[in-house]
Amino acid sequence: MKLVAIVGSIREDSFNLKLAKHLQTRYAEKFELEILDLKPIPMYNQDIELDAPQEVLDFKAKVKAADAVLWITPEYNSTIPGVLGNAIDWMSRVDKVMTGKPSMIMGASMGAMGTVKAQMHLRDILFASGLNSPLLPMNEVYVGAAHTKFNDNGELTDQATVEFIDTVIANFQEWMKNYL
Ligand SMILES: Cc1cc2nc3c(=O)[nH]c(=O)nc-3n(C[C@H](O)[C@H](O)[C@H](O)COP(=O)(O)O)c2cc1C
After folding, report:
1. Where does the signal peptide begin and end (predicted)?
2. Which of 23, 70, 146, 174 has the most beta carbons within 10 angstroms of its beta carbon?
């Protein structure tokens, strides 16, 4: 199984990027996970959507080729960050690369609620007609107080979180059998 992770933070020391890297290494034998970089994606503009920049075409091609998308995002001002919304706008247009493609959401934040509001909004967005992505039901991963759960090497060290994510990934693999 080939998956892509779309991380809603472009900062170097991002907890969400660390979470994506944790998934990449811990489940390397279960699936291949490529972490996509949102930094090169320019602002969406409807005037150029039919002649989109190469960075956008490359990004969309990777999403299109993946069996599923893992959305791993912080919460900004009680919703999803602008960089993520921007990438979603590109994905929702022209060839609509998310149509029918399965999704799973995770998120890490320094707050106690661990991105609950951002994930609620992202869930709604995934059901918009330009995306129309089936979402893994029930398994919700909120990594709150993220600054206490990773060590200086960027490794996820909170055992309860590691074990909980093991369970979610097992559920995700089972659910993915409907789509492979
Ligand atoms: C513009 C901005 C808005 C934020 N809004 C929220 C918020 O609404 N809820 C929350 O839990 N944390 C919020 N935070 C704090 C983030 O949880 C924290 O910066 C986190 O480390 C971001 O994720 P990252 O480490 O992957 O970049 C905000 C941070 C920024 C920079």
Report:
1. none
2. 70
